[in-house]
Amino acid sequence: MKALKIRSLELFKVAPRWLFLKMTTEDGLTGWGEPIVEGRADTVAAAVLEMKDYLIGRSAGDIEDMFQVLYRGGFYRGGPVLTSAISGIEQAMWDIKGKALGVPVYELLGGACRDKVKVYSWTGGDRPDDVAKGAQEKYDQGYRAVKMNATSELAWIDSFKLVEEVCARVAAIRAQLGYDLDIALDFHGRVHKGMARVLMQELAQYKLMFIEEPVLCENEEAFAELRRHTATPIATGERNFTRWGFKNLITGGGVDIIQPDVSHAGGILELRKIAAMAEAWDVAVAPHCPLGPIALAACLQLDFCTPNAFIQEQSLGIHYNQGSDLLDYLADKSVFAYKDGHVGKLTAPGLGIEINEEKVREMAKNGHNWKNPVWRTEDGAVTEW
Length: 385
Fold this sequence. Notes:
Elements: E1 6-14, E2 18-25, E3 30-33, H1 41-55, H2 63-72, H3 80-101, E4 116-122, H4 131-140, E5 145-149, H5 160-177, E6 182-186, H6 193-203, E7 210-212, H7 220-227, E8 234-236, H8 242-251, E9 257-258, H9 268-280, E10 284-285, H10 293-304, E11 312-313, E12 338-339, E13 342-344, H11 357-364, E14 375-376, E15 382-383
Parallel strand pairs: 4-5, 4-11, 5-6, 6-7, 7-8, 8-9, 9-10
Antiparallel strand pairs: 1-2, 2-3, 4-13, 12-13, 14-15
Helix pairs in contact: 1-3, 2-3, 4-5, 5-6, 8-9, 9-10
């Protein structure tokens, strides 16, 4: 294998809310990564550029060592900005290494353990509405699983009328499609413990695939308590970073599914380590990915070689992607062709995709300034989005 010395890094802020990284070696090999915190693209870009001095002249093949340098060499650990910067850099390094060796990344992580991966689609938007119609549309498009937000704004203790509205939405999908469609419900950290218990008890009758982020991840102690109130699988992890940030979640007995994000939690190899920890505690993996095509390709590389990965989130047609979608940036759009609710193995070297660089450069001229909305309850208090 060639030395793969890194010559340059280039960042592209592109609609709808993404940041792409192009890494080039002295031999002209290129790799792509997606270092992004949604709503903090400029901050992450600055972190990537600050790490540049550690990278130029080093081999793109030294992935483990580079993670150690970038994660530990800065003295201060973790957090979404630093680990997202590392994640995008690490993805680009894997892309280069796979291309240099002529194999997909999963072949370098033990080889594939499955031929296809189940995917799910979002429906209903931030404030879910007309979800039965939306679920039917997704089913007709070939999906066999959907996820939707459970609620809009919710107070610490709120009206049972809102609980009934949540249940009515799920009931409408069940009435429309029965159990031919799996349903996951994302509480999105909007729900506090007192209301989470009520909602989970009332929703048990609908046999959900999982409930995501029933409370904020910083309330780790609450997950074990909530587990005692429901048989529905509990998922969380999109706001956790590195294996150390997942350690208590995995071993605490309150979580059935972890959802690390390959663009936030430390990259592909770090997710593989997190998944191996989870496997030892009989916990499943469903990587978080409401992002772009590079992040999705990186997730799929992990899914194909990870026994306890059972489903993959993806953002095609998601409500965030108005005016620009993940297929827009691919040279070959068929690589993410979904069939019967699954995507087949990516077989091209590296991350398995070819980025349409001309499109990326064109869109980067305008960039974006996407920010999370700030929500308030009826009395004016700030609440979780």
